[in-house]
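Quick one, probably user error.
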């Protein structure tokens, strides 16, 4: 999926997780902002690609789903470490942010199962086999061209629209003085 879809997915998952945590007000908005950004973190590995190429152009050799940074255990290990550190330090914010990070990074990777170039290595480290639904088996500009014509792109657009609607409803409720507690 495209970065906008991952941000939208991260936003929606953050909304659900912060609701389950019982957060409200400014605390919830702050955590949702963190979770939304955290939903894009698996694609931070692209920065290494850009640095190596010394260009912001994505070529046909851009296969970052094959990197360990696009596996569930990589992000879960970071989340568990941060959660445990938060518990050790008595830092509830860090523990909650770690849970949110785990949820949104997982959402990102599950979204990459749909319509990506090759899928992701869902069973890593036990298997390096790629798994995906509607995978296109192309990369770079070819992937972008084919992806925008695929049914999965429609799913991504629905995710984006859902996130936008949730945000607009929340802003309207905030502006009109309504809260979820009423």
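Nope, works fine. Designed sequence:
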């Amino acid at each position: 999926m495209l970065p906008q879809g991952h941000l939208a997915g991260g936003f929606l998952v953050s909304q659900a997780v912060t609701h389950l945590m019982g957060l409200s007000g400014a605390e919830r908005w702050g955590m949702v902002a963190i979770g939304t950004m955290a939903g894009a973190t698996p694609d931070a590995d692209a920065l290494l690609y850009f640095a190596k190429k010394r260009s912001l152009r994505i070529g046909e050799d851009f296969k970052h789903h094959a990197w360990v940074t696009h596996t569930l255990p990589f992000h879960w290990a970071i989340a568990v470490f941060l959660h445990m550190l938060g518990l050790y330090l008595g830092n509830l914010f860090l523990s909650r942010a770690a849970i949110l990070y785990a949820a949104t990074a997982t959402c990102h990777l599950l979204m990459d199962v749909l319509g990506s170039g090759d899928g992701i290595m869902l069973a890593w480290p036990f298997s390096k086999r790629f798994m995906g639904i509607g995978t296109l088996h192309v990369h770079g500009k070819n992937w972008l061209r084919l992806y925008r014509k695929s049914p999965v792109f429609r799913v991504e657009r629905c995710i984006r629209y859902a996130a936008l609607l949730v945000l607009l409803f929340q802003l309207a409720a905030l502006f009109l003085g309504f809260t979820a507690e009423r």
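The chain has a mean pLDDT of 92.
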